[in-house]
Amino acid sequence: MHTAIRYTPLSNLAPTTNSNTHLNKSFGSRLLSYCPRLISPISWWHCFTLLYGLSTRKERSFKYALLHLFLLILVGVWCFLYWMITDDAGRYLTLLTSVSGNKTDIIHGRHQFDQIFWRTAVKTIWISITFGLINACGVSLAAVWRRRLCKEFYNIIFRSPNGCILYETSQQAAYDLPTQLTNDIRQFTSHLSITFFGSLFFSGFLAVSTAVIVFSVYIVKKTNGDKNGIAICFGSFIFSVILLILVSYRFNRTAVEQLKSKGKVRSFLQRLQTNAECIAFFASSRFCELVSYLKLNDLVHKWNVQAALWYAAVNIPLILMDSLGGFITYILPAILFFFLRNAQQQTPEDATKYLSIIAFYGYVFWLLSSLMWISESCLIAITLGDRLWHLKQRLLRLQTFHLERIEQDQTNQITFESTDLIEVRKLTIVAPDEHEQRILQSNINLYARRGECVLVNGPTGCGKTSLFRICAGLWPIDAEIIRLPARQQTIYIPQRPYLPVGSLRFQALFLLDIRSKKNESVNIDHEQIRNLFQLVNMDYILDRYDFDAIVDWSTHLSIGEQQRLAFIRLFALFKYRPEETSHTLVMFDESTSALDTKTEAVIYQILQDLRVWFVTISHRPSLIKYHHKELTLQLPSGNQDENFFSLNIGPEELIDRANNQSVVLENLNETVVPETQLFNVMRSNSSPGYTALKKSNNFVKDIRDIWKVIHVSFGEDGKLLRIQTYTAWCICLAVIGCYTYISYRLTVQTGAIFRVLPDYAASKIDIQEGRSRIARLVWQLLLHIFGLSALYSIQLCIGQYLAALYTRRQSRYIARLLLDDDENHSTLYHTSTLKSLPNIISHELADLNVQLFFLLVGSMYYNGLIGVLVKCIPYTLLLVQQSSSTKGVLIVYCYQIFISLLIMVAVQPYFRANVLFENSFALFTNAQKRIDLQAEQIALSDRGVMDIEHKQLRSKLNESIRAQQRSGFFYGLLVACSVLGNWSNTIINYGIPSMIYFHWSPNATTAEAASIIALTVYTGYLQGNLAVFNSHGQPFSQVLAAGRRIAQNLEQMVRLRESHYQARLSEMLCNRRIEIKSNNTNQQALLSLNNVNVCLPTDPLSILIRGLSFALNSSSSLVITGPSGCGKSSLLRLLAGLQYNITDNSSIYIPSHSAIIFIPQQIHLIEGTLREQLNYFRQAKNMSTYTNDYQLKELLTRFNLIHLVDRYSLDLSTQLWSRTLSLGEQQRLIIVVALVALLKSNDGTYVNESSIKYFILDETTAGCDETTEKVIYEHLQTNHIRYISISHRHQLLKYHTHQLIIDPKNQSYQFLEMS
C-alpha cells in the first residue's frame, strides 16, 4: 500500500465561520461582538505583526527607524505648541477682563496685547508646519508599510513550489488576491497611518491622547482641583460614543451590502465587456443584458438610499458632539463657577482663573471628538488588518501543505525525477472541489521512454486537462509511482498560451531568454525570427507590427495566432539550444485546438524533425500518427464494467490494459478567448487597457464637462426620478434655511451667557444675578443644540439621497448608451477597449456624487458650501451689529480669502501628484489582475517566468510607492495651508476682538471691554463657519479628478458611438449592405456577397480577402476553412455588422440580425437558473419563455447535458454557467439554447423557416469530440436548419453543400460546391 496526501480545499485550511449564524444573532450579541473590535488586543496584535513581525525584521533599515523617531518628535512638538496657543487664548480674555475691571490701564494692556499677539502668530505658523510634516511623514510611512506587506505576500506567492499558491488562489473567488494585495493593503496602511498621525480633518491618536492627558491635568491644577469640568467633558463624550455605537453597526452593515451590490454591478459589466463581441453577435443587449443591469441598478439604489438614512443616523451623535463644542467652550466654565462650586467661597479672582482656561475646556472636548473621527479609520484599519493577517496565515498553511505533500511524495517514493522515461502507475485523478472530492479517473497506468511521444485523448470532461495539472504539480498526486523529468526540464504549453508584456521579438524569443544563463546574450537577428514565423505561416504578422511594438498581444492576436506564437517560441529554443534541450519533455494541452489540420501537421512534423520529446493532450484523431503511444480516457457508458482506458503502443511494445473503476464528468473552466479586436472608424479613438487621466489646463472646460456629466438626461422613463430629484432639492434648501436660523439663535444665546463670567470677574454683577442670567437661557440653548444636531443630520440625509438619485440617473443613462441598442448599433462591442467603464458605472459615478454633495450639502467632517454661504449672512450681520465697526468683519473675511488662495495654490501640485499616483496605482492594480487571470499559464511556465512576473510586479509596486510618497509630500503642504486657517482661530476668536479694542477704538473705555469679550463668541462662530472652506479643498479636488475622468470616458464613448453610427449609415446609403426582409419570397439567394474586401479589424487598409463573392440559397450550407488568422472571424464580424463594408461597387445581401443566430467561438453564458439560460436567445429576440419541461429535457438528453438538470434543476439553482461548465459543455449548451429559440410555444416542433434563416457557427464544436460533433450536425440536418460553419476540421465537410477556402498569402479564396 502506498501513502498519499489527499487534497484539502483551500477554504478548509482556515477556520470557517457561518455567516448565517452571525445574522441570526440578537442585536445585543452582534453589538457586543462589534464594539470590542476597536480595543481588541488580538486584532491590534495581528496588525502590528503584519508590519513589525519576525519576517520583516531583516528588511528594517536606518531610514525606517529614523522616520518613526522623527514622527514621534513631531507629535511631541505639536502637543507643546498646541498647549501654548491654547494658553494664549486665555491670556486675551484675562487681559480684557482686567481692563474692564480697572485692574490694568489701557496703555499697559495694549503693550501686553502686542506681545501676546505676535507670539501667537509665530506659534500658529509653526504648529501648521509641524502638522503638515506629520501628515507628509505619515503618508510616507504608509507607503513603506505597503511596500513591505506586498513584498512579504509576493515572497509567499511567487516562491511557492511549482507555483501552487498562485494557481490555487486564482481558482477560488473567495480569495480575490488582486483586490486584497492592492486596495486592501493600501486602505489598511493608509487608515492605520491616519489613525495614529491624523489627516486634514483631525489629529491622530498619538497626538490626541497626549494632548488630552496634558490639558486635563493642567485644567484641574489651574482650577484648584476642580474635576467637574473634565468629568462633564468625558461624560458627554461617552454618551455620544454609546449613541454612535447603537447606530453605527447598522450603518456599517448597510455599507457592506452597498459595496457588495456595487461589486455585483462591476463584475456584471466586466463580464459583459469581456464577452462584448459575443453579445453583439447575439444582439441580446437590449432585452437581456439591459434588463439584468436595471435590476442590479435598482438593488444598488435601494442600498444607496438605506445608506443615506443610516448615514444621517450615525451623524446625530457626531453633530451633537460638534454642537456641544461651543457649549463646553463658552458656557461650561460659567456653569462650573456659578453652580457647581461653593458660592460663598467664589471671588472675582477665581472667575478670572476660569476665564483664563476657557479655551482648554473647548479644546479638550474637541480632542475627545477627534477620537470619534479617528474611530472610523481605526475600524477600517483593524478590519482589513485582521483580514490580511488571516490571509497570510492561510497562505502560509497552504505553502506548508504543499511542501509537506511534495516531501511526503518523495519520502514514500511516489514521485521521482527521471530524464529518460515517463511512468505513471495506479494514478487516481481527484478534482479539488470545495465541498467534495470527485474522482474523475482511477487506476491509470502509463510507461514511455525518452523519445516515445504519447497522445492522451478522450471525450470532453473525462479528465485530460486534470492529468496535465497533476503532471505540472498543481494538483496533489494520488498514485503508486510517478516518474517525470524535473520541473526545469519540462515545458508545459496550455490551451491558452502565456503572453507577457513585451515586444514581438520578446514574445518570439521568450523561452530562449528565460532559459539562457546569466550574462548570456541571445544573438538572433530579425531574419532568423522571420524564418521562425514562416514555419507556422504567420509571417504576415511581421508586416502588421514592428519587431519592437509593445501591445496587449492577448487582444491583438486571435487564439490560433497565440497558439502558433507558442510554437514559435518552442522552435526557437530547440533550434538554437539543442544541447540544452536534449532531455526536455514538452507537454501540450489542446495546444492546437484553434489551428487547422494542415498547420497542425506542419507543426508536428517540425517537432519530429527537431527530435522533441512530447506528450499531447487532445481529442483529435489526426494526431495519432505523430505519437508512439496512445492513452484513451473514457466516460462511463451504460455498463461501468465495460469501461476501459487503453494504452495503445507500437507493435514492438507490450500492451497494458486496466479497468477504469470510476469516471465522472469534470467541470473545467477552460474558456477559450478568441480575437476580440475593435474595428475603429478612427483608430485614435480607441485606448485599450487602463485610461489614464489626460492633462487639461482649461479649468472652465473641465467644470462645464463635469456639469454635463452630472446633468445628463433623465430618459423617457425618468419622470418619477425627475419629480423625486426636484422635491429633494426643495426639502434640502428648506432644511438648510431652518438650520441657519437655529444656528443664529444659538450664537446669540451663547454670547449672552458668555458675558456673565467676565462681568462677574470685573465685579460688575454679583453671583446671584449671574446665576439667574444663566438659568434663564441655558435650557433654551440646550434645546437649540439638540435641534441643530437633528436638522443637520436631516440635511446630510437629503444630500446623500440626492447623490443616490443623481447616481441612478447617470448610471442608467450610460448603461442605456451601452446596452439599449438595436441591431444596427453595437456600442458595447465598439467601446470594449474602454476598460474603466465598468468601474465608472459601478463605483466612480457614486463616488463623484457622494463627494459632490459632501461639498455642496455637507458631511460628518464639514458643512457644505451652500450651508456655509447661507450662514455667513446672519453671522456677519450679528458681528457688525455688536462691534459697531466693519474692521473686524473685513479682517475675518480677508484672512479667509488669503487662506483660500493659499489652499488653491497648494491644491494644484497635490492634485497633479495625486493623479500620477492614482495612474501608477491603477497600472499596478492592472498588473496584479493580469497575473491573476494568467495564473495557470504562469504556474505552468518555467520558474524564470515566475521570477519575471515577480520582478515586473515589484517594479510597478515601487513606481506606485514613489508616486505615493511624492503625493504625500504635497498632501502635507496642503494640510499645512489648510490647518493654518483652523489654527488661526485663537487669533481670530480672541486676538481680533482685542485688537479692535486696543488699536481701532479711538475713545476706548473700560465699559467697552466687557462688550468686546462677548464679541469673541461672534467672531469665533463666523471664523469657524468660514474655516470650513479650508476643508473643501480635498473634496473639490476629488470631484474635479473623478469628474474629469468620467467626462473624458463618456465623451470618448459618445464619439465612438456617433462615429460608428455614421459609418453604418454611410454603408446603408451606398447600398453596400442590403437587408433581406423576412417576407421577401422573391429573393432566391438568402445570403450573397458581391466583390467584398474583408479587412483587418484594426486596420481597414489591410485586406485579408480580396473581391469575395458567393451566394447561398435556401438549401445551402457553407463551411469556411483556412489557416488561423486568414480572416474567417473577420468575415463573421462583417456578416454580423460589427465591421463595415468599405469596398466600392460591392454589396452584401443578408437577412436581418434577428433572422440569424450567431454562435461565436467565445461563448457568453449568463448568471441565472438553467431555465433562464436555456431561454436566453428567446429573451434576446423578445420572445416568450419556453415552459415545456419535457421538450427541454429531451434536448438536454440528446446533447448529453441531462446531468445539469440532476445537479442544478431547471429553476432552483442560480449558477454562473461560464465557470460551472467545461468548454465542451458550454458549447453543447449554447447549441441547445439556440434550438430552444426555434421551438414553438405549444409543442416540440420548430418554427417556420421564415423566422430564422441561418445558424452561423464559429468553431462552436472545437471543444467537442467527433461523436458529439456528429450528433449536433445530424440534428441540424434532420430538422432542416440552415447553417454556416467556420472550422478547421475537415471531417465537417460532409455536413455542408459548399466550402469557402481562404488563402491568406494571396488574399484569395475558392468557393466550391461539395459533391
From TrEMBL:
Annotated ranges, domain ABC transporter: 424-674, 1087-1314
Keyword Transcription in record: no
Official protein name in the record: ABC transporter domain-containing protein
Family label: Belongs to the ABC transporter superfamily. ABCD family. Peroxisomal fatty acyl CoA transporter (TC 3.A.1.203) subfamily.
Transmembrane segments annotated in the record for this chain: 64-85, 125-145, 194-217, 229-251, 272-294, 314-340, 352-374, 726-744, 781-803, 852-878, 890-911
Species of origin: Adineta ricciae (Rotifer)
A single GO cellular-component term on record: membrane
Keyword ATP-binding: yes
Keywords, alphabetical: ATP-binding, Membrane, Nucleotide-binding, Transmembrane, Transmembrane helix, Transport
Example of a GO MF term: ATP hydrolysis activity
